[in-house]
């Protein structure tokens, strides 16, 4: 049975892993490579690296670490952050990245999604969406340039419409980051994710809000997402991967058990 | 041990190369017919579309040299699909090394692509995977080969499809051993080190 994926997310800034609260006040977590290796060893199903400064600074991700990660780990990983051109995408894939995640550049130029899909195949193209619940309007709004507080702003899109748009353009997977929940560890936005799931025909990954094991249980059981992404609970050892996976298995959720040294 | 990764100009060449290097070997990525023909093991990787990959192989004049290979040859993901006779993806004639067809997956209301870790059930005839553990392997694809006489492992997603196929020296894996953790590592090691 296809397993639900547990996906540690490493926010990268200037070659280091950082983590902020609701996209702000970034604190240093550590070097990329040891963290990536450790997560692969302890049973992560996949990794995502977001260069959170890239889009907002007009820079592209510093790429040298991509190849170093690809050399060391044997689970899939996605690179995100400021990927605006086919040439840049090709370079990251050729360094060993499995998937590219596009966020703000896709909002600026939606045609980029079609071009990436045509060039690299649907399976390589992930669309990251930062969705903010506006309590005044009662709408979920898509935001862009969220890596930099001073530039972060809402886009013209409502979340549901943007999801439909990127799927129509060939996106292979969607990571829905629920901004109101991000970094505060109060649980995933199950309601929003369940609503998006109903009309999302590609894999859907939950992001934002993981703080306890039951948050993972809830999002898999109630929103039926394909994977759950989390950062601080893993970086700060609030949740142990082995315990998380065992508890999810005990709850009857399809999970890849942690490997017991095959070789 | 001469190990060649055929340069299909597809995206996962590097991760396949790194996976082989982690096992202590030095593979060569090449589209040189002579070097491919002289290898002890050949790997045919692939990510992208069947039509684009076949176009690349035609342009590089590698169709006949690949068909003529007699040494153990492993097709990975799209590389496995290229080993079949035909792919629905772009309606393209493939290498025809294994008489099977690649078709769009029928998965009902499940998400496509089929992406993530899924159980692989190996048959008794599978030389690369244990047949008693149903290990999780990493898949990412929307097209698949139906289960038939050449199937040496299956996987379920909506329907049962061929996770691995084999005919003579040609073996295909729909999943990515280079991205399948310790299971994939063990499988690649067997492909390189066992008599097949």
UniProtKB/TrEMBL annotation, chain A:
<comment type="function">
    <text>IGPS catalyzes the conversion of PRFAR and glutamine to IGP, AICAR and glutamate. The HisF subunit catalyzes the cyclization activity that produces IGP and AICAR from PRFAR using the ammonia provided by the HisH subunit.</text>
</comment>
<dbReference type="GO" id="GO:0000107">
    <property type="term" value="F:imidazoleglycerol-phosphate synthase activity"/>
</dbReference>
<keyword id="KW-0028">Amino-acid biosynthesis</keyword>
<dbReference type="GO" id="GO:0000105">
    <property type="term" value="P:L-histidine biosynthetic process"/>
</dbReference>
<comment type="pathway">
    <text>Amino-acid biosynthesis; L-histidine biosynthesis; L-histidine from 5-phospho-alpha-D-ribose 1-diphosphate: step 5/9.</text>
</comment>
<protein>
    <recommendedName>
        <fullName>Imidazole glycerol phosphate synthase subunit HisF</fullName>
        <ecNumber>4.3.2.10</ecNumber>
    </recommendedName>
</protein>
<dbReference type="InterPro" id="IPR013785">
    <property type="entry name" value="Aldolase_TIM"/>
</dbReference>
<dbReference type="InterPro" id="IPR011060">
    <property type="entry name" value="RibuloseP-bd_barrel"/>
</dbReference>
<dbReference type="InterPro" id="IPR050064">
    <property type="entry name" value="IGPS_HisA/HisF"/>
</dbReference>
<keyword id="KW-0368">Histidine biosynthesis</keyword>
<dbReference type="Pfam" id="PF00977">
    <property type="entry name" value="His_biosynth"/>
</dbReference>
<feature type="active site">
    <location>
        <position position="130"/>
    </location>
</feature>
<dbReference type="GO" id="GO:0005737">
    <property type="term" value="C:cytoplasm"/>
</dbReference>
<dbReference type="InterPro" id="IPR006062">
    <property type="entry name" value="His_biosynth"/>
</dbReference>
<comment type="subunit">
    <text>Heterodimer of HisH and HisF.</text>
</comment>
<comment type="similarity">
    <text>Belongs to the HisA/HisF family.</text>
</comment>
<dbReference type="GO" id="GO:0016829">
    <property type="term" value="F:lyase activity"/>
</dbReference>
<dbReference type="InterPro" id="IPR004651">
    <property type="entry name" value="HisF"/>
</dbReference>
<keyword id="KW-0456">Lyase</keyword>
<keyword id="KW-0963">Cytoplasm</keyword>
<feature type="active site">
    <location>
        <position position="11"/>
    </location>
</feature>
UniProtKB/TrEMBL annotation, chain B:
<dbReference type="InterPro" id="IPR029062">
    <property type="entry name" value="Class_I_gatase-like"/>
</dbReference>
<keyword id="KW-0456">Lyase</keyword>
<keyword id="KW-0378">Hydrolase</keyword>
<dbReference type="Pfam" id="PF00117">
    <property type="entry name" value="GATase"/>
</dbReference>
<protein>
    <recommendedName>
        <fullName>Imidazole glycerol phosphate synthase subunit HisH</fullName>
        <ecNumber>4.3.2.10</ecNumber>
        <ecNumber>3.5.1.2</ecNumber>
    </recommendedName>
</protein>
<dbReference type="InterPro" id="IPR010139">
    <property type="entry name" value="Imidazole-glycPsynth_HisH"/>
</dbReference>
<comment type="subunit">
    <text>Heterodimer of HisH and HisF.</text>
</comment>
<keyword id="KW-0315">Glutamine amidotransferase</keyword>
<keyword id="KW-0963">Cytoplasm</keyword>
<feature type="active site">
    <location>
        <position position="176"/>
    </location>
</feature>
<keyword id="KW-0028">Amino-acid biosynthesis</keyword>
<feature type="active site">
    <location>
        <position position="178"/>
    </location>
</feature>
<keyword id="KW-0368">Histidine biosynthesis</keyword>
<dbReference type="InterPro" id="IPR017926">
    <property type="entry name" value="GATASE"/>
</dbReference>
<comment type="function">
    <text>IGPS catalyzes the conversion of PRFAR and glutamine to IGP, AICAR and glutamate. The HisH subunit catalyzes the hydrolysis of glutamine to glutamate and ammonia as part of the synthesis of IGP and AICAR. The resulting ammonia molecule is channeled to the active site of HisF.</text>
</comment>
<feature type="active site" description="Nucleophile">
    <location>
        <position position="77"/>
    </location>
</feature>
<feature type="domain" description="Glutamine amidotransferase">
    <location>
        <begin position="31"/>
        <end position="193"/>
    </location>
</feature>
<comment type="pathway">
    <text>Amino-acid biosynthesis; L-histidine biosynthesis; L-histidine from 5-phospho-alpha-D-ribose 1-diphosphate: step 5/9.</text>
</comment>
